[in-house]
Design brief:
About 50% of the residues lie in helices and about 10% in strands. It has nine helices and eleven strands. It has helices at about 50-55, 80-90, 150-180, 185-220, 230-260, 265-275, 275-320, 330-345, 370-390, and strands at about 30, 35, 50, 60, 65, 70, 100-110, 115-125, 135-140, 400-405, 405-410.
C-alpha cells in the first residue's frame, strides 16, 4: 500500500505511506519475513492472518483510527525467557515493517487477594507521517463474583434487588392499566418506567456477562498456555456499568423528589422551579457566549490590525511624497566634495555619478572681474602646490576648472 509522490520530488523521495482505513487491512497469509506463503503449509504462525471470530476480537477505536478484531497474532509465552526469545525472532524477521499501522500489546493480571482481573491493553499506532503513538487503557473486572465467605452476602443483595425490580414492574403495569393515557402525561412516570426498563436490561446483561466469564475461565483451565482475548468480556463489562450508572442516576432523582415533604427541601425545589425559565435562558447565553466572545475577539483584532496598517501606509505615502522630511547629510557631503573637486579642476572621476540635488540650487553665482581674479589667483596657488606635491600631473591633459560666464583653461 502506498501513495503517489509528486513529480517534483520523485528523484529524491522513493515512496510514501498512505492513510489507513479498515478496508485497507491485509488479510493474506505469509511466510517468515512477509514472503509468499506455501499453500500446503497449514501451520499457524505469527505470519498467519487470524479472523476476528478466531480471536474473539471486536472493532477497537484507538486514537488514530478504528481497527477490526482480526490480525496477525504472536504469543509471547508464560515467562520472561520465552517472551524475549519470541521478540528477538520477530525482530530478526522484521515482523514490524513500514506497512504496519498498529501493534496491540495485551496481557492480563490477576490479584487473588481482591479477586480482580486487570486487562492491560496498549495500542501502538504508526501514522503515515512516522513515529509511534501509544494509546494505553486499563480495565478492572471481576469475573468470579461468588468466591469466598462474602459470596452469600453478594447473592442475598442481588436477590433483594431482583425482588424490588419485580415489585416495581408489577406496580407500574397496574398503573398503566388503570390510568391508560393519563399515565404517560406525568413526567415522573416516565422516569419510573425508564428505571424499570433499564433494570431488566441490566439483569439480562448481568447473566450474559456471567455466562461468557464462565466460558473464559473454562477455556483457561483447559489450556493455560493458550491466548485468551478479554476484549469481549471487558466490552460487556463496560456496557453493564454504563446501564447501571444510569439506573443509579435516575434513582437519585427519584430520591430527591421524595424529599419534597421536607419543608426546607420543598422550598429549595420550589425555588428551582421558579428559576427554571430564567435558568434556561441563562444556559442558552452561557453556551452561546463563548462563541460570540471568540467571534468578537477575532473581529476586533482584525479591525485593529487594519487600522494599524492603514496608519503606517498613510505615513509612508506622506513621507514618500515629501522628501524634505528626510535627512540628507550624505547627499550634502557628496555635493560639497563634488563642488570642491570642480573648483580645483579635478572634476568627476570616470564612471562617478553626481549625487541628486533633491531640489538644491546648483547655479553658479554671478561674479565680478575683481572677485574672479582673486579666485583665479588662489586657484593658481593651489595648482602650484599640487604640482610640487604630485609631479605626475605633468602628463595629464588640461582639465576644466569651472564653467561660468567666462571659461579659463589651466595647464600645469
Amino acid at each position: 500500500m502506498g501513495c503517489e509522490v509528486t513529480s517534483v520530488f520523485r528523484g529524491h523521495v522513493h515512496g510514501c505511506r498512505d492513510t489507513y482505513g479498515p478496508v485497507d487491512q491485509e488479510s493474506d497469509d505469509y511466510a517468515a519475513g512477509w514472503q509468499p506463503a506455501n499453500s500446503s503449509d497449514a501451520a499457524v504462525t505469527p505470519w498467519t492472518y487470524r479472523k476476528a471470530s478466531e480471536l474473539d476480537g471486536w472493532p477497537y477505536w484507538a486514537q488514530m483510527g478504528v481497527y477490526n478484531g482480526g490480525g496477525y497474532l504472536a504469543e509471547l509465552g508464560l515467562d520472561a525467557n520465552s517472551s524475549l526469545g519470541t521478540l528477538d525472532s520477530l525482530k530478526e524477521a522484521a515482523w514490524l515493517d513500514p506497512l504496519t499501522r498498529a501493534l496491540f500489546l495485551e496481557f492480563v493480571l490477576y490479584h487473588p487477594n481482591v479477586n480482580l482481573y486487570t486487562v492491560c491493553l496498549t495500542v501502538f499506532e504508526f501514522p503515515q507521517t512516522g513515529g509511534v503513538i501509544p494509546f494505553p487503557r486499563l480495565f478492572v473486572i471481576r469475573l468470579d463474583r461468588y468466591v469466598g465467605s462474602f459470596m452469600s452476602v453478594v447473592m442475598g443483595a442481588e436477590v433483594i434487588v431482583a425482588c424490588f425490580i419485580v415489585f416495581f414492574t408489577v406496580r407500574e403495569l397496574r398503573l398503566i392499566c388503570k390510568q391508560r393515557k393519563a399515565y404517560f402525561a406525568e413526567f415522573w412516570n416516565w422516569i419510573e418506567m425508564l428505571v424499570v426498563t433499564l433494570s431488566w436490561v441490566s439483569i439480562v446483561m448481568y447473566f450474559y456477562r456471567l455466562l461468557i466469564s464462565n466460558q473464559l475461565s473454562a477455556q483457561y483451565r483447559k489450556d493455560k498456555e493458550r491466548f485468551l482475548n478479554f476484549q469481549y468480556v471487558t466490552m460487556w463489562e463496560e456496557l453493564y456499568q454504563l446501564f447501571f450508572s444510569w439506573i443509579i442516576f435516575l434513582s437519585t432523582l427519584k430520591f430527591l423528589r421524595l424529599l419534597r415533604f421536607n419543608s426546607r427541601m420543598s422550598m429549595l425545589w420550589q425555588t428551582l422551579q421558579a428559576a427554571a425559565s430564567p435558568m434556561a435562558s441563562f444556559m442558552i447565553v452561557f453556551f452561546i457566549g463563548p462563541a460570540v466572545f471568540v467571534l468578537f475577539t477575532l473581529l476586533v483584532s482584525f479591525v485593529l490590525v487594519n487600522m494599524f496598517l492603514t496608519i503606517v501606509i498613510e505615513a509612508f505615502q506622506r513621507v514618500k511624497h515629501d522628501l524634505s522630511m528626510q535627512q540628507n547629510e550624505y547627499e550634502i557631503v557628496e555635493f560639497m566634495l563634488g563642488r570642491m573637486r570642480a573648483l580645483v579642476g579635478l572634476g568627476n572621476r570616470k564612471g562617478q555619478v553626481q549625487p541628486a540635488s533633491h531640489g538644491y540650487v546648483t547655479a553658479e553665482p554671478d561674479l565680478d572681474d575683481a572677485r574672479l581674479q582673486r579666485v583665479l589667483k588662489r586657484i593658481d596657488l593651489l595648482v602650484d602646490t599640487l604640482h610640487d606635491e604630485c609631479p605626475d600631473l605633468d602628463d595629464e591633459e588640461p582639465v576644466v576648472v569651472a564653467e561660468s560666464k567666462k571659461r579659463r583653461i589651466i595647464s600645469a
